[in-house]
Amino acid sequence: MPPESKHIYTVSQITQEIETIFKNTFGLGIWVEGEVSNFRAAASGHFYFSLKDEKAILNAAMFSRVNREVKFKIEDGQKVICFGKIDVYGPRGQYQIIIEKIEPKGIGGRQLAFEQLKERLFKEGLFDPAHKKELPLMPFSLGIVTSETGAAIRDILGILKKGAPGVDVVIRSVRVQGEGAASEIASGIEELNEFSRQANLNAGGIPQNAGGKIDLIIVSRGGGSTEDLWAFNEEVVARAVYNSKVPIISAVGHQINTSLCDLVADIFVETPTAAAKIVVDKKNFLLAELANSRHELGMSISDIINSFKNEITRLKHSLKSPLDRLEEKEQFLDELSVALNNSARQLINITRERARSLIERLEALSPLAVLSRGYSLSVAVLDGAIVKDAARLKPKDKIKTILSKGAFISSVEEVIDG
Amino acid sequence: MAKEKQSFEDDLKRLQKIVEELSLGKLTLGESLKKYEEGIKLAQSCSSVLEEAQRKVELLMKKDGKYALGKLSEDIT
């Protein structure tokens, strides 16, 4: 039953009353937990959405003045915890919460913001392997973006000094944690790029000295809490790494979760030491490769020399050896000597033949042959001379007269001149 | 040394080409010996560039839009 006293409010008055009650009850602000739905960002920059649970719904408004501070993207379905004041909106007869703070429920606000940023950059292609640059064969000049006074730079320089002492280092010292660190890191990366580019230009594109050119950049800091390392998760750093023309190794210490800087970098390692070791490894790998090249060159050249040697041997074989030639000559000589023997024998025969005929002719001329025809021959007994002239004889000289058969000695009676 | 550092990658590529050419064994003896000699020289100079033990450690600074290299404030080299 309605009470007797009849105080009649206008709509505005009762709305005013309700507003007062809300103000008195929730004036200092309240925390509300719920799920976001119907989220929309108006052109004015204000956010409008509802918070709901299984049984109720609460309209929410968040003005641009405060929503600029929100580090994560508000989305439908998200469970959030909000702080604000309950406000009555007369023109619509509605009440709503004017949110001053909003946080994702369950997961840390910054973490969520990070996850969302990561997803956005991923979609944009900042982690695309296709964009990753190859590291130089050998970085002779190293740019390092880190704190000049931190542990990271000591670690890196120490490893390099031991393992690759010829590598020049240009340090762009930055703050690696706290307010403003991210933008310092980003501009450090940009400045090393710019410095390297200028060094290239100054030398007319073909630098004569490697002094200015940067082959590789290491972005680094030593280990620390997630909080300490947060600068490396900022978008500005991720973009600077992405835009770098010089290849980048990210070495943000010892943390389990990879930073955005890691994800965008061409290579990432867990520690500053590991980054420096990449450089040392490259050097050692190349030295081993060079030794191998020398070895291969040696093998090849001795193969080549051997094959030429074999070729020579083969050719030698196909040529007559001097010894073979000698034997050949000897054989020829043998043949000649056989021929010579034959000729000599023939000559002897011929000669013998001739001799025989000569003997025959000689025999025909022999005086003995004449005697056989009845002639005789006289010789002086005294001196054996053949008597041809009677004038040489005188009586009583003894002469021997040879006949065809036998002989006789006679004494001269009378000399008759011829 | 700077010059050799600059041509290091080219030298290395040239060396690899020579190693390959020589391994094919299709050159004359004279050419082979020439390439061998060149290859060994390249390998030598590349190695000595890598084994170089002098380094500079400097700090990049930007003043009035111009870059300058300076010494580290603390000697940690």
TrEMBL record, chain A:
Subcellular location: Cytoplasm
Function field: Bidirectionally degrades single-stranded DNA into large acid-insoluble oligonucleotides, which are then degraded further into small acid-soluble oligonucleotides.
EC number(s) from the headed UniProt entry: 3.1.11.6
Enzyme class, broadest EC rank: hydrolase
Subunit organization: Heterooligomer composed of large and small subunits.
The entry's keywords: Cytoplasm, Exonuclease, Hydrolase, Nuclease
InterPro entries associated with the record: Exonuc_VII_L, Exonuc_VII_lsu_C, OB-fold_nuc-bd_dom
Catalytic activity: Exonucleolytic cleavage in either 5'- to 3'- or 3'- to 5'-direction to yield nucleoside 5'-phosphates
Residue stretches in coiled coil: none
Similarity field: Belongs to the XseA family.
NCBIfam families xref list: xseA
Positions of the OB-fold nucleic acid binding domain: 9-103
The keyword DNA-binding is assigned to this record: no
Major localization listed first in the record, in broad terms: cytoplasm
Domain Exonuclease VII large subunit C-terminal: 126-356
Protein name listed in UniProt: Exodeoxyribonuclease 7 large subunit
One GO cellular component term: exodeoxyribonuclease VII complex
Pfam families: Exonuc_VII_L (PF02601), tRNA_anti_2 (PF13742)
GO-annotated biological processes: DNA catabolic process
Single GO molecular function: exodeoxyribonuclease VII activity
Organism of provenance: Candidatus Sherwoodlollariibacterium unditelluris
Source organism, top-level taxon: Bacteria
From TrEMBL, chain B:
BP-aspect Gene Ontology terms: DNA catabolic process
InterPro entries xrefs: Exonuc_VII_S, Exonuc_VII_ssu_sf
EC number: 3.1.11.6
Keywords: Cytoplasm, Exonuclease, Hydrolase, Nuclease
Gene Ontology cellular component annotations, sorted alphabetically: cytosol; exodeoxyribonuclease VII complex
The reaction(s) this protein catalyses: Exonucleolytic cleavage in either 5'- to 3'- or 3'- to 5'-direction to yield nucleoside 5'-phosphates
GO molecular function: exodeoxyribonuclease VII activity
This protein's record includes keyword Transmembrane helix: no
UniProt subcellular location: Cytoplasm
Pfam families with a match to the protein in the record: Exonuc_VII_S
Family, as annotated: Belongs to the XseB family.
PANTHER family in alphabetical order: EXODEOXYRIBONUCLEASE 7 SMALL SUBUNIT
Assembly and interaction partners: Heterooligomer composed of large and small subunits.
Function: Bidirectionally degrades single-stranded DNA into large acid-insoluble oligonucleotides, which are then degraded further into small acid-soluble oligonucleotides.
Name of the protein described by the UniProt record: Exodeoxyribonuclease 7 small subunit
Species for this entry: Candidatus Sherwoodlollariibacterium unditelluris
